[in-house]
Amino acid sequence: MPVLVASDLDRTLIYSSAALALTMPDARAPRLLCVEVHESKPLSYLTETAAALLTDLGDAAVFVPTTTRTRKQYQRISLPGLEPKYAICANGGHLLVDGVSDLDWHARVTARLADECAPLDEVREHLMTTADPLWVRKHRIAEDLFAYLVVERELLPEDWVKELAVWAENRGWTVSLQGRKLYAVPKPLTKSAAMHEVARRTGADLTLAAGDSLLDADLLLAADQGWRPGHGELADVGWTAPAISALPERGVLAGERILREFLRVVRQGVA
After folding, report:
1. Which positions ≥6 away from 92 have C-beta within 8 Å?
2. What is the DSSP letter of 10?
3. How far does Cα 216 stand from its chain's mean position?
4. Local confidence band at 270 (pLDDT 50, 70, 90 cut-offs)
5. pLDDT score for 269
6. Calpha distance 188→109 (Å, rounded)
7. What is the CB neighbour count within 10 angstroms for residue 245?
């Protein structure tokens, strides 16, 4: 039976230059591979060692990139190894099969959102009227499923974020702050539901997952085993669970460690 590995990407496997956390002397810094270019500029990296590990993982397991990114943002990434047959985008709103969104899956997700939580327009209006232009750089709607702001973190009032989280909770939405992006996402829009669907289709009897943010918690809890790095929203609050390993590594070296852990368990399962 195949092993399914569903992993978050940004700040879990791939890292912007600002998130690399290269704290060692320059001469000892790992060699990096650029895996994303945006507007003609390099944007995201992993170590060359991680690239080799990811290639091996793609050969040994069903590797499923699992991201809150939109389809367009995901398709900018060029990961090493075999092109994954499945990918989860928009926090579970789109299930890509050979690069194409599964329309039946998307219809099921949107029907559930309509039944279980406040509409996107209400959330968008609230963000537009309460977020201060002093610290908001961009308002964005992703795939007509959720909203996010690009903010200046050092100017963002902590009390405003807490108030927004309470307001959203009462309407069936979740708030997550990741780097310079503040997300408002419907609670029924989950990575875990899409992971379960891929497991059903592939017949996987063992599921592994990794992630760093609040939006990854449901994915980690749904997997048989999970890992989180030593940075990110989950690490900041000390979040863990019985089947979750909290790794000490931070930055791009955490991505390398996560891939080693995936491969170790996959090979044990195969053996």
Report:
1. 109, 189, 190, 191, 192, 193, 194
2. B
3. 6
4. low
5. 74
6. 8
7. 15
